[in-house]
Amino acid sequence: MKKIEAIIQPFKLEEVKEALKTIGIDGMTVIEVRGHGRQKGHKEVYRGQEYQVDLLPKVKIEMVVPDSRADEVISALTTAARTGKIGDGKIFVSEIADAIRIRNDERGESAL
Amino acid sequence: MKKVFTAGLIGVAATGSLLAQATEAAPTTEQLASQIAAAQSAADNAWMMMSCALVLLMTGPGLALFYGGLVRKKNVLGTLMQSFILMVVATVMWALFGYSLSFGDGNAFIGDMRFAMMNGVGMEPNTDYAATIPHLTWMAFQMMFAIITPALITGAFAERMKFSAMLLFTILWSLLIYYPMAHMVWGKGGMLNAFLGGSIPTLDFAGGTVVHITSGVSALICAIVMGKRLGYPTEPIRPHSLVLSFIGACLLWFGWFGFNAGSALAANGLAASAFVATHFGAAAAALGWLLAEWFQHGKPSVLGGISGCVAGLVAITPASGFVKPIPALIIGFAAGIVCYFAVVKVKNMLGYDDSLDAFGVHGVGGTLGAILTGVFATKEVNALKDSAGNAINTGLVDGNGGQVVNQLLGVGISWAIAIVGSFIILKVVDVVVGLRVTSDQETMGLDLSMHGEEGYNLEA
User: Cβ separation of A45 and B233 shorter than 8 Å?
Assistant: First the structure.
């Protein structure tokens, strides 16, 4: 099993959810986060006082998928979330040791 | 048959009573005069009670929201509370002794205790001040000013003053600065009163000196004595909701019609003139601030627009009952630009932390407005009479340049009282209860540390 964490532009969330639904992924956790990578923030001015706002609002999608589906999910994510501009976000992939469905103790991929 | 008979009787009776009315003596001139006076009094009283409510609306929720939106969200309730508590405490003080110390005859500097505990304040007018409305209405109208004035100062020490210190400060401030200033400018026999025998007649229609200079200059002293907020100006301290500030500023604009047009104390032409001047001043000032900002920073901001409108309302306050509409536009536009530079340039240059710009808007705008009142005041709007009853030239535009000097003297006296008074009061409060919250409490925010609650429990 793989955990896929995608940090994307907030306005791309609907498109990404739609793309994942199309390939049959229906489990995910979405978190509103703040952060920045190479994209620097922006300047805000309040009564002449300038502030550099470098932590920008992003959306993080987390999902755990069977190994066999990982590449397909990643390609759906990148296609849907890409604008081609700096600030599009990143995807991180990691190994998952186990998964347990709380309702009935199912384990492994069948719990996904 | 019986029916017809009855109807006939009723007809006779009705005709009889009509005849009786027609033959009654025509009302005397005195009766007519008293009926006219009663009608005028009713109209004036309706407008003035409405104005009282409008001025209260300026403090809560107007000013409270304007300031509340400008602070960080951990301090929103603490900031709202500082305005609200004055609606409570300043009212009680006013009822017990504040009104009397402001408007009892007294001497040139302070009133006496004749109206203490609302003694002699009833439904009959107080003809010294407002001959057509109940004394109670006049007292209530002035009370709303005594509430908002100390509330304006709270912008200077936002996000770092102890609640107990803020209470003690504003109580002493009302006693030592507001009541004497109100008496001097508006009270019978007050030193600066242009209408009731002051030795330095200063024109202040609705509170440029009494309200805005005293509060704005005191705010500057507070900002300097209290010191900066933790992290200012290196860490970002951004307004948490300009939407709240926007609502607050628009409520201030709305309520200000009561403040200025209500200061005519009657539903008359002067009130209409002040109403228009107020509106023109606010609009022109918002435009002035926005244009200055657009040229300087490349973007016109919402915060700039609403700050400008408040600055214009401040500047037009002393002038509103003395100037024509186009001079009101000029005063407003000048206030927008001057206050913009005071807030954006001068403050950052000098480095004091007047957190919500109470000085830059009220102190600077009030001073500019008081001086320009001496320039643009005209007898065509509001005539002062000499001893023979002739209208005298009012401001520079009438050819009375001396009024500008009087205005400068009034401004100087207001500044002096505010500086010396506030400094002493702050030192006393610091010794008695301590001015500032601890740095831990400041980091936690006033909402939790002073009031034990939070403004936004969105997950609740």
Answer: no
- Put simply, whether A44 touches B (Cβ < 8 Å) is yes
- Which long-range CB contacts under 8 A does A12-17 form with residues at least 24 apart? A12/A59, A12/A80, A12/A81, A12/A83, A13/A59, A13/A61, A15/A80, A15/A81, A16/A61, A16/A76, A16/A77, A16/A80, A16/A81
Interface test with A, best of B71, B295, B297 (most A CBs within 10 A): B297
pLDDT at residue B4 greater than cutoff 70 = no
Q: pLDDT digit string (tens) for B338-363? A: 999 999 999 988 989 999 999 999 99
The length of chain A is 112
Tell me, yes or no, if A43 comes closer than 8 A to chain B by beta carbon. no
For residue B458, the SS3 value is coil
User: Which of B236, B238, B348 comes nearest A48 by C-beta?
Assistant: B348
Residues with Cβ within 8 Å of B394's Cβ and at least 6 positions away in sequence, in order, are: B203, B322, B377, B378, B379, B382, B383, B384, B400, B403
Q: Counting every residue, how long is chain B?
A: 460
User: Whole-angstrom Cα distance, residue B26 to residue B396?
Assistant: 50
Average pLDDT of the segment spanning B131-147: 97
User: What value does the mean pLDDT take over residues A9-22?
Assistant: 93
Most B-contacting residue of A44, A45, A47, A54 (CB-CB within 10 A), to test interface: A47
Q: What string of H, E and C letters represents the secondary structure of B391-415?
A: EECCCHHHCCCHHHHHHHHHHHHHH
Mean pLDDT computed over every residue of chain B: 93
Residue A42 bridge partners (DSSP): A53
ipTM of the complex: 0.78
User: Among candidates B353, B362, B361, B445, which has minimal Cα distance to B156?
Assistant: B353
Q: Nearest chain A residue to B308 by CA: give it.
A: A47
**Does position A45 have pLDDT exceeding 50, yes or no?**
yes
Query: Tens of pLDDT along B251-264?
Result: 999 999 999 999 99
Give burial (CB, 10 Å; 0-12/13-18/19+) of B182: buried
User: Among candidates B322, B320, B313, which has minimal Cα distance to B392?
Assistant: B322
pLDDT at B141: 98
Beta bridge partners of B436: B161
Top-confidence residue, B74 or B236: B74
Contact (Cβ atoms closer than 8 angstroms) between residue B209 and residue B408: no
CB contact under 8 Å between B299 and A45, yes or no, is: yes
